[in-house]
Design a protein that fits this description.
Elements lengths: L2 H11 L4 E3 L5 E3 L4 H27 L3 H15 L1 H15 L12 H21 L1 H5 L4 H45 L5 H17 L1 H22 L10 H37 L4 H16 L13 H21 L1
Antiparallel strand pairs: 1-2
Helix pairs in contact: 2-3, 2-7, 3-9, 4-7, 4-8, 5-7, 5-10, 7-8, 7-10, 8-11, 9-10, 9-12, 10-11
């Protein structure tokens, strides 16, 4: 299946609340019946989970338990937020949302499945103390069922996020690769790539900011919990590692897109030199200059999406770990 088919399946399943308007552009559709049903059903297990977790938190209220509670809860509570963020991204992409032709390899399918499962397993291990502190069998059963359901929702939310973002970026990569393969390219094709690139960069800024923020939060809190002396809290390193790997995977895909855009810029420049008309040469030259000046993907302008930013983020975490070791 290609990108458009996969995303249409998400829409029909209610996990991506998007619809096309009369102009063929994607828009947020929060009235999607399946979307409403899934999120209304989510309320019950999420409420049960938070209820039992808050009871355990109040019984032993301190900085470590509060940080642990926030660490475990952020993935569950942020699920609906991720869905809204995705629908906003889809709306910002407009006509590029559901017109892609790129496909996913088997490895590409494994990442959005395996990563969230491993992530959830780390959270599940951290939940063991809360389950052991409950007084009755009924409470334990209710807590366990609620936890399992919210973990399944978590796997679904993050899986849809990874697949959707990958497909939208890959759609542009496929279009650029097709032009690089062609012997001759038209100026209209180059201008279309430029428009698609700028639209995509603007559309996913909020998602990039959120992912970097969550990764930094997980990295620092996992370092704190890991050195707190609680065996179960050592499992916090698992979700922190997974979100870091997801971010690294995304950066690798984006940096490949940067390189392909540079290659297209060079090819556009060379194509313009072969034109007989000075006006055509000038048009190709201007388009090549725009491709050269096109900026990198950013998190709402706060940082650029590249390995340097990831290195800075990880160095902050390492510095925090060193401070923890020295203080202990």
């Amino acid at each position: 299946m290609d990108s458009a088919q996969i995303l249409n399946i998400f829409i029909k399943a209610g996990v991506l609340p998007v619809a096309n308007n009369k102009h063929g552009q994607a828009r947020m559709d929060l009235s999607n019946k399946m979307f409403l049903f899934l999120n209304l059903f989510r309320i019950f297990p999420l409420s049960g989970y938070l209820y039992f977790s808050m009871i355990n938190l109040m019984d032993d209220l301190n900085l470590k338990t509060v940080v642990s509670f926030l660490f475990r809860s952020v993935g569950f509570v942020s699920g609906p937020v991720l869905t809204l963020m995705l629908s906003y991204t889809a709306q910002s992409l407009g006509v590029y949302t559901l017109t892609g032709t790129s496909k996913m390899s088997r490895i590409n399918y494994l990442i959005p499945i395996v990563y969230p499962i491993i992530y959830s397993s780390g959270i599940a291990v951290m939940e063991i103390p809360d389950g052991m502190h409950l007084n009755t069998l009924l409470e334990t059963i209710c807590f366990s069922v609620s936890l399992i359901i919210v973990l399944l929702y978590l796997i679904l939310d993050y899986g849809i996020l990874f697949v959707s973002c990958f497909l939208w970026v890959n759609d542009l990569r496929v279009k650029i690769a097709a032009l690089l393969f062609k012997k001759n390219i038209t100026i209209e094709e180059c201008e279309e790539i430029l428009l698609h690139y700028n639209t995509l960069r603007s559309a996913i800024e909020l998602t990039v900011l959120a992912l970097f923020s969550v990764t930094q939060f997980y990295s620092i809190t996992a370092a704190y919990l890991g050195f707190s002396g609680d065996l179960f809290n050592l499992a916090s390193f698992i979700p922190a590692l997974i979100v870091t790997l997801v971010l690294l995977t995304g950066i690798n895909v984006i940096e490949e897109l940067y390189n392909m855009t540079d290659q297209l810029m060079e090819k556009t420049k060379e194509e313009g030199l072969e034109k007989a008309s000075f006006r055509e040469m000038l048009r190709y030259k201007n388009t090549a200059s725009k491709l050269r000046r096109v900026g990198p993907f950013t998190g709402m302008g706060f940082f650029t999406l590249d390995r340097n930013t990831l290195s800075i983020m990880l160095s902050i975490t390492v510095t925090y770990i060193v401070v923890l070791l020295q203080s202990s």
